[in-house]
Write a structure and sequence with these properties.
Length: about 475
C-alpha cells in the first residue's frame, strides 16, 4: 500500500504545473463555497467559522459542510395560507383589546399565528405524569389523534404509547404519527407494524438521504417538536420525549422536565402546526386544513378562554427566529424579573446583551442549567459565558445530579414561555421548534412555584470558583469558538 501511494504521488508530481493546478482548484473551491455560505446571510461569526473550517480542512471540511452546512426550507406559501383554510371560527388578527400587546403582535407577525386563549393549562412534571395524562387522553379520543415527536423510543414508554394508539386505531379513530428520522432512528418496521395494521398513518420527518448522492442529507433541520392533539380540543406539548430516559417511574435518574396539557381555542393553532408538518412530510394535499373534524365547532371560543395564549413556532423556513425574538423582546420589556431555565445555553449576542442589561438595570435575573448536561461540549460552551453574566449580576444555578431538560422562561409576574426550544443556535435557527407564550398571573405564579423549588435545590455558581487555565478556561474557550455551529 505504501509503495502504491508513493507511485501515485510520483505520477502526480510529474504532471506539468501540478502545483499551480492544485492551487487554482483549491482557490476556486474555496471561493465558490464561500460565496454560497455568505449568501445564506447568517451571523458573521457563524459564516466565518464555516469558511475557515473549509479553508483549513478542504476535504474533511467539505464533507462536514455537506452533512451539516446551512440549508434553507421554503414553506412560506403553506404558512401564509393556513389561517384562511377551514378556520372560520378562528380569529386571524390580533384582537383590538388589552391582550394585543407588542409581544403578541410580534408573535403573530413572525409566525402567522394570532393570539388566542386557553380555558385550562395544566403543568405536568416529568415523564411518568406526562405519559399517563397523554395515554388517558388518547383512550378517550372520539375523532382523531395526531402526534409529532423528535424522540420516540421502542422501549417501555414507547410501547405503552404505541399500544394505546393501536387500540384507538382499531376502534376506527384516525391516528397520525409523525416522527423525526434522526431522533427516532431506533424505531423499526416491526415496532410500527401493529400500529399500521390497525389502520394508523405514519410518516418520517426529513428521512436521511446518505445513499442519495444528488441530495444533501437532512442531518440538521430536525423537528424537535413534541406535540399531541386529541380530537382538536386537547393538546400536549413541552420538553418531554417518549423514552424511558424520561420516565421517572422506571428510572431514578430520569431527566427533570416540564410538559403541558392545554384546552381551549389555542388548540386550533397547535392543530395547524401539526398539519403543516404532516403535509410537508407526506406530500398530502392541503385539503386536510378543511376537515371539519380536525377543527371541531365545540371547541370553546376565544372569548370563553381566560388565559391569553399564543403558539410560537420557529424553524429554518423562517428568517425571523420567532422564539428567539420573543425571548429577547420579553427580557427587554421586563420591569423586575427574568428567570430562564434551559438544558443547553449557547446565547447569541442579542440574548446575551438583553440578559446582562436586565441584570445591570437591577432586575432579578436568574439562569438555571444542568450541572452536567448530556453533551460535555455544550456544557463547556455554556460555562464560557458565566463570567460575563455573573459580573453583570445574573444569578446562575446548576441543577443536578439529574439532567435538567426543562425549557422555561418567566418575565415579571404575568408572562411565561415554555416549550421545546433550548436557548441555543440550533433551536433558534436549525430545528423546527414549538413554544407556548402565556400572559396570565395565575399560571405564571404556578410556574414560578415549580421553578423556585428547582432553584432551591440547585447549587448557585459563585464568582470566585475554580478557573484553572487547562481544566476550565481553555476548554471552555475552545468550545465557545464552535458556539455558532452548535
Amino acid at each position: 500500500m505504501r509503495e502504491a501511494l508513493q507511485d501515485l504521488w510520483t505520477s502526480l508530481s510529474s504532471i506539468p504545473h501540478v502545483a499551480q493546478i492544485l492551487a487554482v482548484a483549491y482557490v476556486t473551491y474555496l471561493l465558490v463555497l464561500a460565496c454560497y455560505i455568505v449568501l445564506q446571510k447568517r451571523e458573521p461569526v457563524a459564516t466565518l467559522s464555516w469558511i475557515l473550517s473549509l479553508a483549513a480542512l478542504p476535504y474533511i471540511g467539505l464533507f462536514v459542510f455537506y452533512l451539516f452546512g446551512p440549508q434553507k426550507i421554503v414553506r412560506q406559501r403553506l404558512r401564509r395560507g393556513r389561517s384562511r383554510e377551514g378556520m372560520s371560527t378562528y380569529d386571524a388578527v390580533c384582537p383590538p383589546d388589552a391582550s394585543c400587546t407588542e409581544l403578541a403582535r410580534v408573535g403573530q407577525a413572525t409566525t402567522g399565528l394570532s393570539p388566542s386563549t386557553a380555558t385550562d393549562v395544566d403543568w405536568l412534571l416529568d415523564g411518568a405524569a406526562t405519559y399517563a395524562a397523554i395515554i388517558d387522553a388518547i383512550g378517550k379520543a372520539q375523532r382523531h389523534v395526531n402526534l409529532e415527536y423528535y424522540i420516540f423510543e421502542p422501549d417501555h414508554a414507547g410501547t405503552a404509547m404505541r399500544d394505546a394508539l393501536v387500540e384507538r386505531a382499531r376502534a376506527g379513530i384516525k391516528v397520525r404519527l409523525l416522527l423525526d428520522a434522526v431522533g427516532s432512528s431506533k424505531v423499526r418496521k416491526a415496532f410500527l407494524r401493529p400500529l399500521l395494521d390497525a389502520g394508523a398513518e405514519m410518516a418520517w420527518f426529513h428521512p436521511r438521504q446518505l445513499l442519495k448522492p444528488l441530495k444533501r442529507p437532512w442531518l440538521n433541520m430536525r423537528t424537535h417538536r413534541k406535540l399531541v392533539v386529541v380530537d382538536g380540543n386537547v393538546a400536549f406539548t413541552g420538553g418531554i420525549n417518549v423514552t424511558d430516559e424520561e420516565d421517572d417511574s422506571r428510572n431514578p435518574n430520569a431527566y427533570r422536565d416540564l410538559h403541558m396539557r392545554i384546552r381551549g381555542q389555542v388548540v386550533h393553532s397547535l392543530q395547524l402546526v401539526f398539519l403543516e408538518d404532516w403535509i410537508y412530510a407526506t406530500g398530502q394535499g392541503a385539503e386536510l386544513f378543511e376537515r371539519v373534524d380536525l377543527f371541531p365547532a365545540d371547541v370553546p371560543t376565544r372569548a370563553q378562554g381566560s388565559i391569553d395564549a399564543q403558539v410560537l413556532v420557529s424553524g429554518p423556513d423562517s428568517a425571523w427566529e420567532p422564539i428567539h425574538r420573543l425571548h429577547v423582546a420579553a427580557i427587554q420589556e421586563a420591569k423586575h424579573r427574568v428567570w430562564l431555565v434551559t438544558p443547553y445555553f449557547v446565547p447569541g449576542e442579542a440574548a446575551r446583551m438583553a440578559l446582562t442589561s436586565a441584570a445591570l438595570g437591577g432586575l432579578d435575573v436568574r439562569l438555571m442549567v444542568p450541572k452536567q448536561s448530556d453533551s460535555r461540549f455544550v456544557t463547556l460552551a455554556a460555562r464560557s459565558y458565566f463570567d460575563e453574566l455573573l459580573e453583570a449580576g445574573v444569578r446562575i444555578f446548576e441543577y443536578g445530579p439529574r439532567m435538567l431538560h426543562s425549557k422555561a422562561f418567566i418575565a415579571d409576574d404575568d408572562t411565561c414561555i415554555v416549550g421545546t426550544a433550548n436557548f441555543d443556535h440550533r433551536s433558534f435557527r436549525l430545528n423546527f421548534e414549538l413554544s407556548m407564550m402565556y400572559t396570565d398571573p395565575k399560571l405564571t405564579g404556578e410556574l414560578e412555584a415549580i421553578l423556585q423549588a428547582e432553584f432551591d435545590s440547585a447549587g448557585e455558581v459563585q464568582p470566585i470558583r475554580d478557573r484553572s487555565l487547562w481544566r476550565k478556561r481553555l476548554p471552555e474557550a475552545f468550545a465557545r469558538l464552535a458556539s455558532p455551529l452548535l
